[in-house]
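Figure caption, in words: inputs first, then the predicted bound structure.
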Amino acid sequence: MFWERQIEKVPRKELQRLQLSRVKRTLRQAAKSPFYGKLFKKIKFTVEKLRRLDDLRNLPLTTKEDLRKEFPYGFVALPMEKVVRVHSSSGTTGRATAVFHTAKDLEGWANLVARCMYMAGVRKNDVFQNMTGYGLFTGGLGFQYGGERLGVLTIPAGSGNSKRQIALMKEFGTTVIHIIPSYALHLIKVFEETGTDPKKDTKLRIALIGAEPHSEATRQRIEEMYGISAFNSYGLSEMNGPGVAFECPQKDGMHFWEDDFLVEIVDPQTGQILPDGEEGELVFTTLNREAMPLIRYRSKDLATIFPEPCRCGRTHRRMSRIKGRSDDMFILKGVNIFPLQIDTVLMNIPEVGTNYVTVLEREDFDDRMIVRVEVRPEFFQGDLRQLSNLQRRITESLKSEILITPKVELVEPDSLPKSEGKAVRVIDKREM
Ligand code: AMP
Ligand code: ZN
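Bound structure (adenosine monophosphate present):
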């Protein structure tokens, strides 16, 4: 069986017709929430005014700030007795936001995640170990229900507890994992410590990696170290969580599911819509949500939409890897820097280990950037001073990418703090 083949390969014209009718339904539903009810009244908007999909651009963008202001229930569009679940964004940047679901919303979400998993090649006879946090974070329950919907044995392993994760993989014969990329890099060290070789001693074949920005070099490292095929998974809790965009076997961008989300790309400064092919901020409108429809929600995630059809035959458009969030770009000596640029440079240097952190400091009105980099155990002979060549090479490579000369400090393998959830790659001490 091909998962939902009809909708995945639907002709674009038909998809747009479907989107238009779903947008109208969503707007009608949204009008029942306190926030959109008030907003539509204020701007004198009625659904009848929407004739074409393009007319949506006349509506203002919804922001995370709006969600925070209306926290917790201001966006709920039906009686609370219909609401069965709440999730929350991880709050890595500011106060958390709450997103509510009805039973039907949850079913729709599970279908989307199942569709993604099937697309990546996961089948019923796989054993799927979900290694992300269960709870308010959406990666846990999102993939649990997605896996079960697909019909695959799904192990709710949760995050952390590395040795136990490896034991579970061996005991149950895990073939597919869902894992945060920085944790996948860390876990390889625990494999080494326990004398286990993921290539020989496990049956792993597929990794679904996402939830945080990571470079192509990071993906390749994970694929090589584990001997698996890794697929990029994108989502945000405001749009359910995982299941918003996902790589197909071409691994050339992530397909959005445009029967479920209407996607626009806007200039992050002006909010103006940009044509496909230009980099900008992703803006989403839910097309099937009951409990908490969101209209033109600003994700803060920066990416490019690929307008060309994909070789896999799916008609849903694709997006590039996330370049970063408009709010995690930092400015040093007037230069804009994205953490992903640092990731790309470091992960392409074989002697660099699996963990690093960038610290920004201010001393005597002068900003400094320190990049602490773990050395890969194979290249560490007990004395970091012998590695001055490597240190110079890293400094040079970073300088040619970010145009600033950082202070590179090499540190011993496994010595930097690690995180079980999303990695903290930049510590900005300048504002503290
Ligand atoms: P949350 O809503 O807390 O789960 O966080 C969602 C955010 O995580 C997104 O808005 C992105 O910034 C980030 N994110 C999720 N998946 C990816 C991915 N595959 N690549 C890069 N960033 C991602
Ligand atoms: Zn494709």
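Residues 201 and 255 are 33 Å apart (CA to CA).
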